[in-house]
Amino acid sequence: MSAILSLQNVSKSFGALTVTDDVTFEVPRGQALGIIGPNGAGKSTLFNLITGNLAPDSGHISYDGRDVTRVPPMQRCLSGIGRSFQIPQPFDRLTVFENLLVSATHGRGRSEHEVEQDCAAVLERTELIKVANRASGTLTLLQRKRLELARAMATRPKLLLLDEIAGGLTEGECVALVDTIRAIHAEGVTIIWIEHVLHALNRVVERLLVLDFGRIIGIGEPDEIMASREVREIYLGIEV
Amino acid sequence: MAGYTVTTRTRASQIAAAFALVLLIVAILLPAFASRSLIQDLFFILTMLTLAQYWNLLAGYGGLVSVGQQAFVGFGAYSLFGGAILWGLNPIAGLLLAGVAALIIAVPTAFFAFRLQGAYFAIGTWVVAEVVRLSVAQWKAVGGGTGTSLPRDARDAMWGAEWIEIAFDTRSSAARDILAYWLALLLAVATIGGIYWFLRTKRGLALAALRDNVEAARSVGVDSERMKWVVFLVAAFGTGIAGGLIFLQNGRISPDSAFSVIDWTAFVIFIVVIGGIGTIEGPILGVLIFFGLQTLLADFGSWYLMVLGGLGIVVMLFAPGGLWGLLSDRTGLRLFPIQRRLERRATIEENSDG
């Protein structure tokens, strides 16, 4: 299986603080990879490096067989990298439908007319169709999280980055969201998902990556990773 | 699946469109029966409205809070005067020159100012405006620091003025006011119409997305840099024409009046902020309130500015969306519909059957 995304010796520092420390890993096409780690481990920074919102100090990032280390976020989006933000960032004064229109037209380089039905379809599968004409600033947390997912989906991503999309949701809300994500994954979309809600993550991902102080301290099968001593000590705080 | 349609029209917008058309016709015919002072007041309102719409496009949509728009007003106006004095250019054609000249200095200004963020951008644009003012004050041909008047033959040569003089049987100075008023009306309508058209396109939608959240807009493929350039250059062009027109009507220009940060930026910001930033309706409401206050407080000297400042602060604190924001939030009223609403085709068919 060819890798859709590969990071080679990627490092990023903010002043004296190294937030991404010599990170190397690959994500095979079609896989769902979970990323866990304590707060401040550099998970979101890693996403920003992949989407191009941040430039690495050293190392290389390639996507779909192409070096994208210096490619701006806009072009990365056009080539199929979609993301959701940890704290939902809707276009507040636009409606839910318009939020999707922006991402479908600009993220895919299409006209509004070409993507209208598509956007409606994404709203249906993310259960947002009922609030399609509501200003997105008025949505509930679950709806905002769904909008993050829907807006990313509207760009028709090949690689979908989800940043703590299940955080703050109730049990029932979480289950419904996970079902939607599973369905998206089943269509062949590669997913990288940062999440603290491990049971949600474990229902989707095939591989787990553990980050601590910007370093990868484990990557592999979820069961294997969760059983490893180092992970249990650092991440779960269990003394072994 | 499928079976959805998208519409922007609302009932209020259709009524507003009809009303606007009537208003426009009245405005065009107004000089036939209105007093000269009313025409002058309306000229002032229309030019301030135009400046406010461009500043709103910049700051309200593009996130570019410029306090240096007087650079474009002043340089545009001076170009018109320079063209008339040096080359004998007809002032009406000079209006186009004013826009182009403003556009030309906007390019290096943008190169410089786009490197700055937030408050630094604002200060940077102000610095540029001061530099332009000081440079123009050295230009002896247009009167240096003391300024100059529009030459008499240039004034008399204004296209259309003679026709108005005969048609309305009026003095030539009043005829020039009428001409300036019509041009201001044309400029304001073209500005509002142009912005409205743009906001209904896919790029306009992206601009509204940028207004709400820059980072998210970039992550879904919006080219924020290009959008900033487009908005900045368009605003400079329009602001330059408005500047040319204001001083064409005035007949006299000086660096202090043409590059006044109070007149061409502070008042404009006030109009946009109290009216409602980030909407087309906001500046329209804002300019009416501004004009009302100015008339009301004309005799109170510097108290007038303090009242404006105080009111601006109160609105910013308690109604960040401005008075139009307050109104449209309560009533859902929108005069310029740009919102795309998704509707199920089936329900529309039911409606049209009945």
UniProtKB/TrEMBL annotation, chain A:
The keyword Amino-acid biosynthesis does not apply. One of its GO terms (cellular component) is plasma membrane. It comes from the Bacteria. The keyword Lipid biosynthesis does not apply. Keywords: ATP-binding, Hydrolase, Nucleotide-binding, Transport. Pfam families: ABC_tran (PF00005). This is Lipopolysaccharide export system ATP-binding protein LptB. The gene is lptB_5.
From TrEMBL, chain B:
Pfam families: BPD_transp_2 (PF02653). It is a multi-pass membrane protein. It is found in: Cell membrane. Keywords: Cell membrane, Membrane, Transmembrane, Transmembrane helix. InterPro entries: ABC_transp_permease, LivM-like. The keyword Transmembrane helix applies. The chain crosses the membrane at residues 12-30, 42-64, 71-89, 95-114, 178-199, 229-249, 261-291, 303-327. GO terms for cellular component: plasma membrane. GO terms for molecular function: branched-chain amino acid transmembrane transporter activity. The keyword Transmembrane applies. Its main location: membrane. CDD domains: TM_PBP1_LivM_like (cd06581). This is High-affinity branched-chain amino acid transport system permease protein LivH. It comes from Palleronia abyssalis.
